[in-house]
Amino acid sequence: MTAYSPLGSGDRPWASADEPRLLDDPKLGAIAEKYQKTAAQVVLRWQVQRGVVCVPKSVTPSRIQQNLQVCDFSLSEEDVRQVEALDRGERYIVPAVERDGQRVWRDAEHPHFPFHDAF
Ligand SMILES: NC(=O)c1ccc[n+]([C@@H]2O[C@H](COP(=O)([O-])OP(=O)(O)OC[C@H]3O[C@@H](n4cnc5c(N)ncnc54)[C@H](OP(=O)(O)O)[C@@H]3O)[C@@H](O)[C@H]2O)c1
Question: Domain map of the chain by residue range?
Fold first, then answer.
């Protein structure tokens, strides 16, 4: 299992201005402070700790370095549950596009589109 966009993909072109920004979540910030890590490191650690491979993207050398440093701490069971509790049911798997006046998921007509049950 691989997490693409594990940091919430804040810079994806189809992000809306009013959507919640994962890395700015105050609860995540509080957990990060407790471990003296960043919010990004906490969500990456959360994924790795449950056996999910992560593909984070950054054009910022210090962040690339930071994103590798997630193997020197462990989240407690309680903090794992706190991160899980951040799930608001938002799904950003593929962009929505306008077609014949309707908002549809890009690629939804593809014979192997795998996410029909995800929405
Ligand atoms: N094959 C597929 O279907 C597929 C689908 C989705 C994604 N992907 C790939 O997966 C990779 C990741 O996806 P993504 O770019 O959508 O999302 P992402 O990794 O969740 O988020 C990238 C964003 O997080 C910022 N960021 C990175 N490290 C950070 C840190 N330590 N602190 C704060 N902000 C940080 C980046 O900023 P800066 O770059 O400005 O530092 C960028 O704005 C990409 O290489 C993408 O191509 C592939």
Answer: 1-8+16-88, 89-119
